[in-house]
């Protein structure tokens, strides 16, 4: 302790001896008159001690105990009532009845006042009931989900479907659905939010029941309550799974007491009076100073008081604390007396002065109270501060939150108190992350945002439209003034929130800077808290990271931070059941055991491998606990952790996310001897409860967390080892919780966009409404007012969300995590096979954080403004391009995520240009992987990537909204929008080069594309047949939405596969048309067969496709003639119009030779029912029929002219083919397709077919169609008859 009296050792027992006569002559005690004046000043209480008694004799330490007894005498009305109070039945200490008064599965906390739902709709009541009088209790809402809070009688019976309010004589308020319940339900009250306090009031004299929300009455909810014999009402609640609340029956001061109503549990009235009087005496000590030289008392401010070791003052304080200390273990007195006193100091003085006074008060606590008394008091003090902060209402200046945080900082900066709190309180029962949360106000008028942001504004278009459409409508001068006024209000709000955030960062720095080998960890954290907590953690982490760099020049700055790859395989960090890139950890350690020994000098303990093997084989053994069941223990602030909080309080996901905080010790790293290349270190996986400090920070022989450095990594440490694990945990936290919460918060912005659109539509209708229709105009005006009021409310809420979640500083934090993940992946990739040990969440965070930066933070903040934006895009592009087909990554989920991320990446110009900037060999490797046969991986995502490289180059393939929908609903702003085309000619060229290179690349790729097209279109036709049959039934049928979705997906896949074929034919036409290629004829015949099949199915008159399209079913909006017919037309035009005459003739002959070819299908493209007569002009298209000529906004004149030339060419060619065709006997036709004459015989079995059928079959199978014998060779049928020439089988 810093004061002069710190060296004295006083105990309360020794101070009892000061009443002896000899103590008056102790050296240092002031003379009697000054002592009398001082004691009278400290213990003056004229309201409770008769004047004659005070003036009869001087006060000294001999008669001070008697004086204190008189001072602490309590009037009879202040004494706590003994026995039962009229109108109340049950124990005087009211708690939840966890023994028999519940239904369903509920989790009740140790104090029996907090409850968490763990079943569908669990119900629990209190131990005490009331039958007469006016009573209330408070419920602290921890989560805003489905709950019914109120009163019930003991006769009420509940189950998993019926809770409080669903039975007679039970009454409830539900702020989630904003209703009241008593068998029936009606609208009532306001919506509640997490952090609100509901007061439940019952007046059994008047027979009424009402509720208050944050002290504001919601009105009488129920009247005419049943009263009389046997009718007594219990506080009760029913709550859904994972919902949680805390009750206050009176064990703590009510936050919102109501005049005339009593809490169910009586406050400790007598002790409260005594504590207040003793606090008054203590205040007097702090405001009065003895001047023994001049023999007088000097009044001073408490902030100027110093403990100087004067015996008179020390003895006085000892007498006060002798009576005061036993009272401070009660939470009611701590909250009502001590916290109010400390908050008064914080509110009155400057931060430095307040901290000085608080420290002196804590010094006195530790000096004059027993250790267990101080510890109990501090525990209750911090619990109350957490509760007060969490449930404090939001006021415009955030003064309540600021005062609670300033007091917390003052307490934590007291070294001895902080040591105790870190080791026993903050990371066990108190869930300290609550201090780092800033709750969002659900009701802006109560938060005072109307005064802070008087002018509201909202964008004229959504943020997505603003990013996609560069031609934004210019705002008017009035809109500009409103926007600027709104931005000024947002800036004022942000500055006030930044004050709170800075205080939160200071608290976290104090928690992280703990060099005492002690500490515990937070076990339960609501997901919504994690976003704020992550940002505060990043601020503190970067501060300590750069501070370490300042003292260790060889370390790196936080801007260059990454996680070294050895952290993932040396067993020092327990990732529980989180998946690794290469699969299960036990499998990796078996298969990569040699690589670990060669590259990292790590030998896996054989006992561990044997144990893992036995666990895999022993199926009857009890399974290992899941991550939700394992104790979340770890080193806490640099020390070993005691037993954890009960496992049922650990969230399965967030418990793992909170693990990292416990390893956040910031201590100087001692120099370590580097591990020589010849040394082999035998390691085992250490669970968190087995780790010591050396496992994290290392020792003179051990690199701790960095054990097993691969040769690719530099020798110098990146930073302090404990900071590395904190960073690792922060990335894990983002993956497990934060990204999901960021996506949820975007809902406010989406609501603003929806209401803004509705308001614009209403205003347009008002302008168009005839003046004579006053009735319609009145209704539209009402709607306009409702939308405007809602937008005012939402725009203020959006300002709060932007300040707390989506500000520029928060964006930089997420960007920092993205860059760390990129560097970590790059370093891990250099380790070769050991890259498989990296947890999957690093790739997930890289993908998701980029998505968040791109989609969640606009339009106010743009990712393009971030430092190093172009370089970061390029590095992420390189990672996606390399690892989407990386054989070291085996998990299907992460492979799909990589594929989808790459597909999204090539949709946008900025990110597509980044893909084009990566090195050429990486680009070529990416395209090669995309062209690999589709059977080896999920082909749909691969195909979509290729399609997006082509969009904007194909026939009529430049639309951003589906043209057929715009024709039917031109003014519908809710139509699905596609990204603007941004083709990549560079990647298209790589694709063309690869297809020309090897003889097997193009056939295998195109064979898989044609197979998938055949499957997708066949599935689509089968599904629309089922849909049509369901629609034609007389009884009312509803088509399953999932079936509609799959049907639309198959259609979209068919269109995209056709577009890939169009791209291939355009880039490399010789694959199909140059018959010098061995497979070109076969591929062209297969292509012609599929194109004719599609055309015949889609273009037939009044066919199945037409009927389903005219139904306009929701979910099938994309299914129409235009997308698929334009794709087919693009292929046909490239085959029949472009190119030299020889190639055109080959394509024409193959197309006409297919038995499914119908010229009528080609005519359908231009709206003609039949082919035109030779030499006649095309008639005008029928508007009721489909025609490409109706889509001139999307198909230019040149493209239409090409279609007309194609139709004329096919008309002429088909007429010539019909005239020249000769009849063929059935025996000479291929027995497989019955379309072409027999032209090949198989050896050795001798069966026959046409060349097209056998060549297509041999692409996938070497067995004969008929006898299943292996086909060795295929011989030309005509040559067998004549010369017997053979050709080898493909």
Automatic annotation (TrEMBL):
Pfam families attached to this UniProt entry: SPRY, TPR_RNF123, zf-C3HC4_3
Location of the protein in the cell: Cytoplasm
Molecular function via GO: ubiquitin protein ligase activity; zinc ion binding
Keyword Glycosyltransferase found: no
Catalyzed reactions: S-ubiquitinyl-[E2 ubiquitin-conjugating enzyme]-L-cysteine + [acceptor protein]-L-lysine = [E2 ubiquitin-conjugating enzyme]-L-cysteine + N(6)-ubiquitinyl-[acceptor protein]-L-lysine
Highest taxon, organism lineage: Eukaryota
UniProt key word Electron transport: no
Family matches, as PROSITE patterns: B302_SPRY, ZF_RING_2
Ranges for domain RING-type: 1230-1268
Primary localization: cytoplasm
Known pathway: Protein modification; protein ubiquitination
Residue intervals of the B30.2/SPRY domain: 74-254
Entry function: Catalytic subunit of the KPC complex that acts as E3 ubiquitin-protein ligase. Promotes the ubiquitination and proteasome-mediated degradation of CDKN1B which is the cyclin-dependent kinase inhibitor at the G0-G1 transition of the cell cycle. Also acts as a key regulator of the NF-kappa-B signaling by promoting maturation of the NFKB1 component of NF-kappa-B: acts by catalyzing ubiquitination of the NFKB1 p105 precursor, leading to limited proteasomal degradation of NFKB1 p105 and generation of the active NFKB1 p50 subunit.
Protein name (Swiss-Prot/TrEMBL): E3 ubiquitin-protein ligase RNF123
């Amino acid at each position: 302790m810093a004061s002069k009296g710190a060296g004295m050792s006083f105990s309360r027992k020794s101070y009892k001896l000061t009443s002896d006569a000899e103590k008056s002559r102790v050296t240092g005690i002031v003379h009697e008159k000054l002592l009398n004046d001082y004691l009278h000043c400290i213990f003056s209480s004229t309201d409770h001690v008769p004047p004659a008694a005070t003036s009869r004799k001087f006060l000294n330490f001999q008669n001070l105990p008697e004086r204190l007894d008189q001072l602490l005498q309590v009037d009879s009305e202040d004494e706590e009532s003994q026995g039962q109070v009229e109108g109340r039945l049950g124990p005087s200490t009211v708690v939840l009845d966890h023994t028999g008064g519940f239904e369903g599965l509920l989790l009740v906390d140790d104090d029996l006042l907090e409850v968490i739902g763990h079943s569908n709709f669990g119900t629990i009541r209190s131990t005490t009931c009331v039958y007469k009088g006016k009573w209330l209790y408070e419920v602290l809402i921890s989560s805003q989900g489905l709950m019914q809070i109120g009163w019930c009688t003991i006769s009420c019976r509940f189950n998993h479907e019926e809770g409080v309010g669903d039975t007679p004589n039970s009454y409830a308020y539900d702020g989630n659905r904003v209703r009241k319940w008593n068998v029936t339900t009606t609208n009532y009250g306001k919506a509640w939010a997490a952090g609100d306090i509901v007061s439940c009031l019952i007046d059994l004299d008047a027979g009424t029941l009402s509720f208050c929300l944050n002290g504001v009455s919601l009105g009488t909810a129920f009247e005419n309550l049943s009263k009389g014999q046997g009718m007594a009402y219990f506080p009760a609640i029913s709550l859904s799974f994972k919902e949680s609340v805390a009750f206050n029956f009176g064990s703590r001061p009510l936050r919102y007491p109501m005049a005339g109503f009593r809490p169910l549990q009586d406050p400790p009235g007598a002790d409260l009076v005594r504590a207040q009087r003793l606090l008054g005496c203590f205040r007097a000590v702090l405001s009065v100073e003895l001047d023994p030289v001049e023999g007088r008392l000097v009044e001073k401010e408490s902030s100027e008081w110093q403990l100087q070791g004067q015996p008179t003052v020390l003895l006085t304080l000892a007498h006060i604390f002798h009576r005061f200390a036993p009272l401070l273990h009660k939470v009611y007195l701590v909250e009502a007396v001590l916290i109010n006193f400390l908050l008064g100091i914080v509110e009155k003085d400057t931060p430095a002065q307040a901290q000085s006074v608080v420290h002196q008060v804590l010094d006195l606590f530790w000096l004059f109270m027993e250790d267990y008394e101080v510890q109990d008091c501090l525990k209750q003090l911090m619990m109350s501060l957490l509760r007060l902060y969490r449930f404090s209402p939001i006021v415009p200046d955030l003064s309540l939150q600021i005062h609670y945080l300033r007091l917390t900082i003052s307490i934590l900066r007291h070294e001895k108190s902080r040591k105790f709190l870190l080791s026993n309180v903050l990371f066990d029962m108190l869930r300290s992350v609550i201090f780092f949360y800033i709750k969002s106000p659900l009701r802006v008028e109560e938060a005072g945002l109307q005064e802070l942001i008087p002018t509201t504004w909202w964008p004229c278009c959504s943020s997505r439209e603003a990013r996609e459409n560069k031609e934004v409508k210019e705002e008017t001068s009035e809109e500009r003034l409103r926007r600027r006024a709104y931005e000024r209000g947002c800036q004022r709000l942000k500055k006030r929130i930044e004050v709170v955030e800075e205080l939160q960062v200071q608290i976290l720095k104090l928690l992280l800077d703990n060099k005492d080998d002690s500490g515990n960890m937070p076990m339960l954290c609501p997901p919504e808290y994690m976003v704020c907590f992550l940002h505060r953690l990043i601020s503190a982490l970067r501060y300590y990271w750069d501070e370490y760099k300042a003292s260790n020049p060889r370390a790196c700055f936080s801007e260059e931070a990454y996680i070294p790859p050895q952290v993932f395989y040396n067993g020092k960090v327990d990732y529980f059941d989180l998946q690794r890139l290469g699969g299960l950890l036990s499998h990796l350690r078996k298969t990569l055991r040699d690589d670990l020994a060669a590259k990292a000098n790590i030998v896996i303990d054989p006992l561990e491998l044997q144990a893992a093997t036995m666990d895999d084989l022993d199926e009857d053994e009890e399974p290992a606990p899941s991550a939700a069941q394992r104790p979340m223990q770890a080193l806490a602030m640099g020390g070993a952790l005691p037993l954890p909080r009960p496992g049922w309080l650990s969230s399965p996901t967030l418990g793992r996310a909170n693990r990292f905080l416990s390893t956040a010790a910031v201590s100087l790293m001692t120099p370590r001897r580097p591990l020589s290349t010849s040394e082999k270190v035998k390691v085992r996986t250490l669970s968190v409860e087995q780790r010591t400090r050396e496992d994290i920070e290392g020792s003179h022989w051990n690199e701790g967390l960095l054990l097993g450095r691969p040769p690719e990594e530099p020798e110098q440490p990146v930073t302090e080892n404990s900071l590395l694990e904190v960073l690792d945990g922060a990335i894990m936290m983002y993956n497990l919780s934060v990204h999901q919460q960021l996506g949820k918060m975007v809902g406010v912005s989406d609501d603003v966009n929806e209401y803004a659109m509705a308001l614009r539509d209403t205003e347009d209708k008002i302008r168009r409404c005839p003046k004579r229709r006053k009735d319609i105009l009145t209704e539209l005006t009402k709607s306009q007012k409702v939308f405007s009021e809602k937008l005012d409310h939402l725009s203020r809420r959006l300002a709060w969300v932007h300040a707390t979640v989506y500000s520029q500083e928060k964006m930089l934090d997420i960007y920092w995590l993205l860059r760390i993940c990129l560097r970590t992946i790059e370093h891990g990739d250099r380790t070769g096979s050991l890259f498989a040990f990296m947890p999957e969440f690093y790739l997930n965070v890289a993908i998701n954080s980029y998505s968040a930066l791109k989609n969640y933070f606009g339009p106010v903040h743009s990712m393009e403004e971030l430092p190093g934006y172009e370089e970061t895009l390029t590095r992420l592009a390189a990672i996606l391009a390399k690892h989407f087909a990386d054989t070291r990554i085996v998990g299907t989920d992460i492979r799909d995520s990589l594929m989808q991320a790459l597909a999204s990446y090539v949709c946008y110009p900025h990110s597509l240009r980044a893909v084009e900037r990566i090195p050429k060999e990486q680009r070529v490797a990416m395209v090669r992987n995309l062209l690999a046969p589709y059977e080896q991986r999920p082909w749909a995502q691969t195909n979509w990537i290729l399609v997006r490289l082509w969009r904007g180059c194909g026939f009529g393939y430049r639309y951003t909204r589906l043209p057929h929908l715009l024709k039917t609903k031109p003014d519908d702003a809710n139509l699905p929008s596609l990204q603007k085309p941004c083709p990549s000619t560079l990647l298209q060229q790589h694709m063309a080069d690869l297809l020309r290179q090897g003889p097997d690349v193009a056939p295998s790729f195109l064979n898989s594309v044609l197979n998938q097209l055949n499957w997708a279109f066949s599935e689509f036709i089968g599904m629309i047949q089922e849909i049509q049959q369901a629609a034609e039934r007389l009884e009312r049928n509803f088509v399953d939405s999932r079936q509609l979705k799959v049907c639309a997906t198959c259609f979209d896949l068919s269109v995209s596969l056709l577009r890939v074929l169009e791209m291939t034919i355009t880039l490399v036409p010789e694959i199909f048309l140059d018959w010098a290629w061995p497979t070109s004829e076969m591929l062209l015949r297969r292509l012609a067969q599929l194109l004719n099949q599609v055309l015949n199915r889609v273009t037939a008159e009044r066919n199945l496709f037409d009927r389903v399209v005219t139904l306009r079913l929701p979910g099938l909006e994309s299914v129409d003639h235009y997308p698929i017919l334009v794709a087919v037309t693009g292929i046909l035009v490239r085959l029949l119009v472009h190119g030299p005459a020889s190639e055109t003739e080959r394509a024409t002959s193959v197309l006409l030779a297919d038995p499914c070819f119908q010229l009528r299908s080609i005519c359908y493209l231009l709206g003609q029912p039949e082919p035109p007569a030779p030499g006649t002009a095309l008639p005008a298209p029928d508007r009721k029929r489909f025609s490409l000529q109706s889509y001139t906004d999307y198909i230019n004149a040149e493209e239409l002219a090409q279609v007309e030339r194609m139709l004329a060419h096919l008309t002429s060619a088909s007429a010539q083919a019909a005239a020249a065709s000769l009849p063929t006997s059935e025996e000479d036709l291929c027995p497989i397709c019955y379309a072409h004459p027999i032209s090949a015989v198989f050896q050795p079995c001798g069966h026959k077919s046409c060349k097209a059928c056998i060549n297509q079959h041999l692409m996938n199978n070497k067995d004969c169609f008929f006898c299943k014998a292996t086909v060795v060779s295929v011989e030309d049928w005509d040559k067998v008859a004549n010369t017997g020439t053979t050709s080898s089988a493909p």
